[in-house]
Each structure stands twice: as C-alpha cells, then as structure tokens.
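[Q] Does anyone have a clean structure-token version of this?
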Amino acid sequence: MGRMDVQSFKAAEKLPLIVVLDNVRSLHNVGSVFRTADAFRLEAIYLCGITACPPSAEIHKTALGAEDSVEWHYAADTCDVVRSLKEQGVVVFAVEQVEGSVLLPDLELDPSQRYAVVMGNEVKGVQQAVVDLADYALEIPQYGTKHSLNVSVTAGIVMWEFLKRLPIA
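[A] Here you go.
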C-alpha cells in the first residue's frame, strides 16, 4: 500500500496539530487517538494527568504500533502543557460544549499557524481550568438525543477537519 515506515514517518512533514489528552481514562481511547494521529501525521500527542502512557498492552491493542511512530509526551498537569504551548505560539482549542464555542463547520485556520486541541475525560470533559486557559473552545454540532461523543471518535472527527483545512504533502 506504499505506507511509510516509522523512520520515514518521524522525518516526514507533520500536520501542525497537537492533541492533548486531559485525564482520559480508557487505554483503548488513548490507543485509538494514537492510531488516528499516525494516520493524519500529527505533530505530537500530550498525555496528561491520569492518561496512561506507552508502553502498554492495552494501548498497543488499538494503536497497533502508532505509539512508536507518533511523538508523545507525558505531563502531570494539563494546564502546564497548555501554558507552555501558548508560550510557543500554538493556538489552543478546548474541545468542549461551552457558551461562545466555535462550531466545527465554522472553523477557520491559518496554514502558517500551529494548533493544539485538548480532548477531555470521558465523563467530566475538559477541566474548566483548561477551558479557561484555551484560546478558543471548539464544538462538534450534534443533532440526536445524546450530548456527547466518545473521546476517540471526537478526536478523529476533529483531526480530520484540521487535515482538510491544513493539508500536508
């Protein structure tokens, strides 16, 4: 299928997008985010708080080795990561349903800019302190009876939308 190997992946141009996982409990969700981040050649993943880190058999089960290709970092405090990213000039979106959020179809991005998206805990969402620190909140419109999506599904939808707006070679 013409896929690149891990070394080629590490050297390749990346989508200027970082995913920050804020206290994500499920190791399967973490693995799924790694796998999607590999598919869309993201810059990096930050695993924060209680979010599990590789090596882990449960993460590997869904990541299928993407934990080896995608750059990742661990930090105990998500707020520290958001502050650091903002100091580096990264525009940070908390993916959360809040007043004043940007609806995903209305998202406009600058191709010269780097971005980060914070995905929250499966039950509690993104911590309020993190939402407060973020530059923007981003929301996926939902039209059914439920008010949330699985975090790995949300991550996939958001990553895809960023890729469509910030194509890489």
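[Q] Thanks! Anything notable?
[A] The chain has one domain: 6-165.
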